[in-house]
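Handoff note, outgoing to incoming analyst
You'll be picking up this chain. Sequence as last confirmed:
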Amino acid sequence: MRSIWSGAIGFGLVNIPMKLYSATESAKLDLDMLDKKDHAKIKYNRMNADSGKEVAWGDIVKGYKYEDDYVILTDEDFEKASPEKSKTIAIEEFTEAAMIDPAFYDTPYYIEPAKGGERAYALLREALKDTGKVAVGRFVMRSRENLCIVRPQDNMLVLMKLRFAEEIRDTKELNLPSSKVDIKPAELKMAEALIDQLTPKKFDIAKYKDTYDQALLKLIEAKAKGKKIAAPKPKAAKTKTVDLMEQLKASLAHKKAS
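Most recent structure output, in case you need it:
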């Protein structure tokens, strides 16, 4: 596993040297974009908008249009904008994880202590476990400032990149039922019974597999051999009635029968 970022966690006056690793990887099938006529691969070239010529990666720079011209920015410029965060995950405060809406969660990363940081790493990990808190901080990666939390997980620390509040869209334009909507007590009780019926003693997320790609690969192999696969029929339980109470009763009965 290759680290994607290295620096330190700033915990008060304690500096914890560490490395960051991506906690996720794509399991999707690698599909190519092809020309429908001859199945030739589609290329995406970096073209100069004025000359029409392709531009090498080494000749591409980042710029911000200021008035009528561009101000070109280098990697050093990005670091100068926030030098204290360019190589440090600066912890600013602590809170309970439940205080952060899951809508703010973005990308998880594993944190590994670098040489000399093992004891301080373990100290922060155990302190977070004992207090039930997560650390909230900011750092710069790939020339962008990121908001994050650091939380304990088993014997390691995990960094969860967060979205900033301005990235979360307002819900005012949504047409949502009010809390005063007429819900009958019997319907609520039946819905809660269905929830209880579908609640396992112990939740195991590992049992959920991405079966779509498996089915897609099966279809690809069949097409390669000139075979055809019929589309499967939906298995969702259906009731002829539109009465909510009857649908809930049918749902409970369907689960018991399956």
